[in-house]
# Entry
Amino acid sequence: MTNSIGEMEDCEVMFIIGSNTNENHPVIGSTLRRAVTQKGGKLIVADPRRIGMVRDATIWLQHRPGTDAALINGMLNVILAQGLQNQEFIDSRTENFEAMKKVVAGYTPDKVSEITGVPAKDIIAAARLYAGAKTGAIFYAMGITQHTNGTDNVKNLANLAMVCGHVGRPATGVNPLRGQNNVQGACDMGGLPGDLPGYQKVADLQARKKVAAIWGRKTLPAKVGLTVTEMMDATEHGEVKVLYIMGENPMVSDPNLRHVEKSLKKTEFLVVQDIFLTETAALADVVLPSAAWAERDGTFTNTERRVQRIRKAVDAPGQAREDWWIITQLAKRLNQKWDYKSPKQVFDEIAKVTPSYAGISYARLERGNGLQWPCPTSRHPGTPILHAAGFARGKGFFTPVEHQEPAETPNKAYPFTLTTGRILYHYHTRSMTGRAEGLNQLAPECEVEINPADARSLRIKDGQMVKVASRRGAVTAKAWVTDRVAKGVVFMPFHFAEAAANRLTIGALDPVAKIPEFKVCTVKLQKA
# Structure
């Protein structure tokens, strides 16, 4: 996030797109609701479903799945056509504005209405409301990124914020809501195939030399690695022979699960490190039992870039051990001279190798509620707001973005658009929440949301079992007939292995970020 959670209640206008906030991020969702109900803030929600946040929205833009870029372009068109932009910010802080302006000129509200299904008047109203705010903030999640044009979607949100000058000030910004508790920290540590810690690029010779010196190496490989989805393809083709999977359950969470299962079974050696025997761990040659969050010490970095200490509360059961300890022991058995004795030692190295963490230490974290990176020196207070004085690259760059249809669009054989996501009561692949009796009472099984008009045409009644099939597989689940979804759209949560939505989803990737298009594929429905 460019800004901080504590600022959210002071937003005059909030634009939520691609985020079912009150179910997927309920604490942040509650904060945004308070901004509306207690402080008079205005809320714009763009979502194909009537999610809970719509109840508090001034404007709901119910767009067709996969048309986010066109919708944002429509708002940009209105802002520029009506002279609502912050020209002073554009002139002093950005570049390539004219190229973006030229593209969005073709996305009139009427044209965008045809693409998205959103009435032109609502597009105009949303653009005016966001542009006219003294403080306007954008909040998005995987409903924006999990598309074949997910990178363009994010760049277009940056275009929208910069056009209005809603960047670098309190209660503004472009704020991605990360999907899990420490996913920000994992990315910060180099958990991306082209990055070293701190987003230093593998392709950068000087970055490789600096990190290699700290790690006591002569050199580091310059080759960019593979993403998870690419690993599965490479495994199927025999190019990857060993997989070491840690804290991930691709047998439920990855797209096209038939392909994933085939790939995992083809590995010569599969190691899974996790806190439970997940569906993926059941296929492993070796399972390494890991300690859970309350059974270990260390740090988390949350969605607002805040590095926080976590402290061990209970002992891990049986042979379970902390992840850092397991990895250190493996390294020793591979003849590496690793001698870490504690998570603190690991963090001390993180501060040396990661510029944005350089000023953070356990001693400083013990004294307060964490520090937000970048924190480059031991006296730096941390950075609650990014881009206040300028952008990291100098000037903000406007990127022209064109609408792109999803990899699959409905036809006679597969007439419905399936979109997937999460529900309040379960988390990711249910490896934890599926073992909680109370949560299973609240949400015991997968439900497929079907619009009443579609249900009538297929003679499907609420509560009946239905078969949902795509080009990649089929699952059976209970029908929930509801106007939460538009006609022609169905929704399934991906949590349930016994009715795994990802048996249906497509493995098509964003060409830049290599993220699969979880949010759009085509299916057919029938009574089971």
